Amino acid sequence: MHKIILKEGIETKKDGLINRVLKEGKVQSYSPWLMNMFAFTYDVIMKKSVIPKKLAADITLHRKKNKEYLTGFREKKILELGTGSGSICNYIDPSNDYVGVDISKGLLKKAGKRFKKSGHRHFELFVASADDLPFSKDSFDFAFCNLSFNFFQDAQRVVNEIKRVLKNEGQFFCSVPVPEKNIKRNQINGTLRSEKELKKIFEKNEFDFKELPPHNGAIFYFLASKMS
After folding, report:
1. Strand spans (E) along 34-110
2. pLDDT band at 23 (very low <50, low <70, confident <90, very high)
3. Domain-embedded: residue 195
4. pTM of the full predicted structure?
5. Band of the pLDDT at 170, cuts 50, 70, 90?
């Protein structure tokens, strides 16, 4: 794997297949919305409850959408925000350098095992927050976030970070629930931002924002391209 360059002042230490971020010698830790003790049930919760019930979405269509936008990359540096249990690994070609971040150590442990089992050799996982990424600028060709953007409290900071770590003309693919598509008025965790709000935030940060229909239940898909 090509070396991932960290921001100045950032160090890491290995914890199995996971990288822990150190600032001033202290390991950074976070409080996931789904505590680490529930990491082993995460996939079941997503498949049986969150996607079909909370989001009223078709999981087959969702997988098809991910496959459409993630499988075409070869020998690129790819970043995922909110890696979760690593279920996306089957869509990432092993020739790519994959980097995943999540605030849940428990989920990243599952992701590490999954990536390794699927034959990936060029991957790194970091316990880190999307609004304070530990990587240097212009590090990645492509970034994506699968059903996690609503858990980022400060969307502006996250988009700033995406812009910083993406190379010029790099792209960000995202699937996220939005309030106007939540027609069943289900209780969806996190902060739901409208399509207009998302578009405004990305365009303010000099991204070309493009929605990607058809959408799926409460899930909205979009592609944001960093303008040079």
Report:
1. 77-81, 97-102
2. confident
3. yes
4. 0.94
5. very high
How many distinct structural domains can be found in the chain?
Answer: 1
CA 190 to chain centroid: 15
Residue 4, in any domain of the structure: no
- The answer to whether 175 and 219 are in contact (CB under 8 A) is yes
Residue linked to tokens 């999981």: 59
* 207 belongs to a structural domain: yes
- Return the CATH number at 24: 3.40.50.150
29 versus 176: which is more confidently predicted? 176
Which structural domain, as residue segments, surrounds residue 199? 10-28+37-226
**Residue 37: how many CA atoms within 13 Å on its side-chain side?**
0
Burial of 8 (0-12, 13-18, 19+ CB in 10 A): exposed
The token pair that represents 92 in the structure block: 């990432």
